[in-house]
Amino acid sequence: MKTIGILGGMSWESTATYYRLLNEGVREACGKLHSAPIVLRSVDFQPLQQYQHEGRWQEISTTLSRAAQQIEAAEAECLLLATNTMHKVADDLSAAVNIPLLHIADAVGEECHAGALDKIGLLATAFTMEDNFYQKHLQEQYGIAVAVPPAAQRQRLHEIIYQELCQGEKKATSKQYLLQCIDDLAAAGAQAVLLGCTEIGLLIEQQDSPLLLLDSTVLHVEQALRWSLGSDAHRVRMN
Question: Hey, which residues are catalytic here?
Answer without folding.
Answer: 83, 197
